[in-house]
Amino acid sequence: ICAIAHVTAKKMPSLHRHEEEKFFVNTEGRKEPVPSIHDPPTRELSVVVPSYNEEHRLPLMMDEALDYLEKRQKRDPSFTYEVIVVNDGSKDQTTKVAMEYCKKYGSDKVRVLSLVKNRGKGGAVRMGVFSSRGKKILMADADGATKFADIEKVEEGLKNLQPWPSQMAISCGSRAHLEKDSVAKRSYFRTLLMYGFHFLVWFLCVKEIRDTQCRFKLLTREAALRTFSTLHIERW
Asked: What is Dmax (Cα atoms) for the chain?
């Protein structure tokens, strides 16, 4: 294990942005510079959606998310948001699909950040986070596997962590309470793979932490800056 770790070890991922990644395209087709996480926040919530070849699944997620966010904004006009779709070097029509939502809702609410080449999920999320304007930043998957309205539970978890040290806090969604039901619905083979994976994580890595595979991760802006500035791995 030590030999493999030594051979496959890499330097810290480069934070370099390609010139094309410093801009997003607005609804008029013009390029605008992306904001920086170092800037003061101007939105209440940023939703970062890493997407790789998601032209078929992305619309379901975007429809549900934007329907929820729009209704919430109507109830509370002080609530402002943005959804950043990070096209991670897709080979399909992911950018075209995402741009349809940009045209429908406006580039102030929906932005598409296209990466020159595939970085991996970690790299895609980081690029989206670094281009966000929100006081709080939510990681959400493009497959829509998690009901978007459940963000309120994650927000409640973040609120319960106050006072936040140096304004840093992270709230992670959990499906631990659904594990028995999910096991019952899986095939025996998938259940075997799941427990095998859990055993390897327990045996080779950490014994106290269980990954319950929920997509929602909500971070304060300060926590996101500190976390993603020191990210070691860009891949899945």
From this structure: 57
